[in-house]
Amino acid sequence: MRFTTGLLVLLLLSVSAVAQEPPPVAPVETPPPFDQWLKELRREAVARGIRPETIGAALDGLEPVERILERDRTQAEFVLDLDAYLARRLTRATVRTAARLHGEHRSLLAAVGRKYGVQPRIVTAIWGLESNFGRFAGVRPTIPTLATLAYDPRRSTLFRRELFSALEILDRGDIEPERLKGSWAGALGQPQFMPSSYLKYAQDFDGDGRRDIWSSRADVFASIAYYLQQHGWTGGERWGREVRVPRAAREEIAALPRRTEGCRAVRTMTVPMDLREWSALGLRTASGAALPRAEMSASLIAAGTRYYLGYRNYEALLQYNCSHSYALSIALLADRIP
Predict the structure, then answer these.
(1) What's the pLDDT at 24?
(2) 307: helix, coil or strand?
(3) What's the DSSP call for residue 209?
(4) In the chain, where are the structural domains located?
(5) Which CATH architecture has domain 34-73+137-214?
(6) How confident is the model at residue 28 (pLDDT cuts 50, 70, 90)?
(7) DSSP notation for 91-123
């Protein structure tokens, strides 16, 4: 993608699984009858070491939920430029709430930050935008949701894997079956982790023996921080910054090569260059000051009417959700928390 003067990067607003760009949709095949499919699923669950009592509690009487398929097949596909998206997401009320709750949980967030090396403001921002500051942890029973999506042939491989991960969560005793709830796409708890991400990254920070990302603030904050740490977040570094790009340099910048690997959003960014190279092209901070004299590489992001330099911590945010609208919302909200 070439960035030209006045370009608006149109950002797809999706409700896809946390930290993943969905794989290509496979050709649709007619599935077997659901009871036959479920019988084979039970056999595979046993082979994977899931206890029979867990399988029975989760799968007995299970039926596909048509409403889940309707929701999945009618996802809203609309676009907003970044300015409009940020105006919708980063309202004054949101910023005030973030600042207030950040202050209320300052000690806990600081302890999480010390352990995982992630700035507390970033954790607060993700918590706020993923769960509306703890008000939303998901209301749909996860096993029927994932079974429905796994039975549907369009993305059966992805959701079948997540279904077995959810059964493993139950088998480990992290949560009771009736409390295992999430989004319509199977994302769990306040961090909105898919079950496979829960198994890898959920933390028991309060020390009660359970990784409760539904109701334990300590576990929620620590899980978010650990996820970022494991995806390359470096403590003490910025995520990036908004910059001014002189008109005289825009044609040269438009010709710079783009990234060739990574998720869709990463591939719209320029290849990383040292800040000194960006300074030589005339880039300045949003306030008009010179860029810092630091040997740090950054990629340029053109979004809406604005330009940003994204450092390696910005790429960790894209690992949480591969969308510039999402990552920039998190980063800018965090910057506004005092």
Answers:
(1) 52
(2) strand
(3) S
(4) 11-16+238-322, 34-73+137-214
(5) Orthogonal Bundle (1.10)
(6) low
(7) -HHHHHHHHHHHHHTHHHHHHHHHHH---HHHH
Hey, what amino acid is at 196?
Answer: S
CB atoms within 10 A of CB 53: 10
> Taking phi first (over 0 means left), then psi (-120 to 50 degrees means alpha), and beta for anything else, what does residue 295 get?
beta
By the 8 A CB rule, do 219 and 212 touch? yes
Instruction: Answer whether 232's CB lies under 8 Å from 116's CB.
Output: no
Contact 116, 229 (CB under 8 A): yes
Tokens of 269: 């960014």
Cα separation, 175 vs 28, whole angstroms: 34
Q: What is the mean pLDDT of residues 120-133?
A: 97
Phi-psi region of 30 (alpha: psi -120 to 50; beta: other; left: phi over 0): beta
The residues pairing with 297 across neighbouring beta strands, listed in sequence order, are 274
Burial category of 110 from C-beta neighbours within 10 Å (exposed 0-12, middle 13-18, buried 19 and up): exposed
Helices (H) and strands (E) in the chain, counts: 15, 9
Give 293's pLDDT tier (boundaries 50, 70, 90). confident
Of 69-78, 173-182, 229-238, 262-271, minimum mean pLDDT range:
69-78
pLDDT the model gives residue 17: 41
pLDDT tens digits, one per residue of 60-75 = 999 988 878 776 665 5
Give the bridge partners for 240, in sequence order. Answer: 310
